[in-house]
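agent> fetching stored inputs for the adenosine-5'-diphosphate docking request
agent> found them:
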Amino acid sequence: MRPVIQVSGLRKSYGRTVAVADATFEVNEGEIFGLIGPNGAGKTTTMECIEGLRKPDRGSIAVLALDPFRDVYKLQNRIGVQLQQAQLQKRIKVWEAVDLWASLYKKKSVDGDRLLDQLGLTDKRNAWFMNLSGGQKQRLFIALALINDPEVVFLDELTTGLDPQSRHAIWDLVRGIRERGKTVFLTTHLMEEAERLCDRVAIMEHGRIIDIDTPANLVLRHCPERTVVIEVSDPAAAEPFNLIPRVERVERNGSQFTIYGRGDLVTEVIHFLSENRVRVTDFRAILPNLEDVFLKLTGRSIRE
Amino acid sequence: MLRGLGKLTWIEIKIFMREPLGAIGTIVVPVLVFVLVGRAITSKAQTPSMSNFARVGLPVMASILIVISAVLSLVTIISIYREGGILKRLRATPLRPQTILSAHVLVKLLLTAASLLLMFLAGKRYIPPGVHPPIVSFAVALVISTWSILSIGFVIASIVPTARFAQPVGAVVLYPMVGLSGLFAPIASFPPAFRMLARLSPMNYAVSLLQGIWVGDPWSAHLADVAMLIVFFLLFTALSAKIFRWE
Ligand SMILES: Nc1ncnc2c1ncn2[C@@H]1O[C@H](COP(=O)(O)OP(=O)(O)O)[C@@H](O)[C@H]1O
Ligand SMILES: [Mg+2]
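agent> prediction call returned; pasting tokens
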């Protein structure tokens, strides 16, 4: 796999605030890569340095083998950008924005009307930007980021502030971008979003990258603990639960058993239950997620 | 290099026309005031030739007010666009920074020209027959003046902290410039300190140029004014290129 973004030793301060202390990572072609971390971690700053909008204090960045600061115009023709806090002119119409954007790129742009159609904005073509809902604005920004058929798409906190329904719709759109062979680099402070969407994530805190891997591997490496809670109709059948591989401890509370273990505990328990024909009246697996990984790595919750 | 300039300018004009007070405040009101004042003056002065103020002062004053409103609305729009992240969003495209700002200058120049044209058409009947003001030269002089004074707009836009302050800060800079412009009292009659200040402002050169051209002076008599307006334009443009903030 070819890296399309290479960042090494990136540092950027605003006056005395060190926004990014030291960041090194690569993004591969065709993947959805997420930079995750709490607000203020330095995600936006990192992304804007990569987009050529900010000049790093130190470190090197290559995007599609270009220097984003020196070759910013060449680069902007080949990438698509959605910014965290951007707006458009209040009274610009949807089609006008798409039409303007389409005229800016050297390469022939994709069909704007088709793009609006794919993003469900066709009946908003003549609406003013200020009259769009939050989800519609974000979809328009996605359209603008895709209008030049870019090789890499940057999405900064794309779904922050949206209701769950719009959020799921937008996740599907982002997966669609990857399906078309593009690379997606996104930031989010929503762990669920990272877990559902990203092929690989880099966890950032206080301007540093603390780990990079697939969401599943991160959880497996940092939070291997697994818990299964089951209720059985015949408690006697539960006697040999201790013998299941990966089990470390079993607690009993009436007919309810809580089984603690690590790794692929859940698979092992299911296997045991079916092998021994244990009748189960309730089954619940408690799996750690990226939020737990973050808590483990930093000692604080990402929501703080 | 100027890819997108035409389209962006056209969109900005359309957006401006969609603002509830935009077109009324910058075009209709100045023209209306001009017409009303013009009528008041002509009905009183029943002389065959125009009064001195109607002849020299009124068109120039009207033009300067148009220029000022152009600069104030430029400052306001730039700071609103900056605060809303619109400038930043436009900059994250292949649009060059100078294209984004040039579009706004063009919008203001076109609107200024439109106001002037309407004003001339509306005020035509107050001009006695046989008097032919050099309207084309005057328009050119107004464009040069507007261009030069708009460049101050970018300097002001660079220093206003938030959009809320755009109008007041702009007014604090611009209205004294009008007061010291020689439009209401000859500059020679000012105390020395004021005279110095006046010379440091492009407004005087604009007033001198507009006044002169309106009464029929040849351009050659105003080369110094034009030169100074260009110097101010270059100076302020260079300064704002240094201090302009995109976010
Ligand atoms: N334009 C700016 N000027 C000064 N400080 C900034 C600016 N942008 C961000 N910061 C500061 O830099 C740090 C990192 O911010 P940011 O990159 O926006 O983080 P994130 O996107 O992870 O929330 C924060 O402490 C923030 O307050
Ligand atoms: Mg951010």
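agent> quick read of the result: The first helix of chain A runs from residue 43 to 50.
agent> awaiting further instructions
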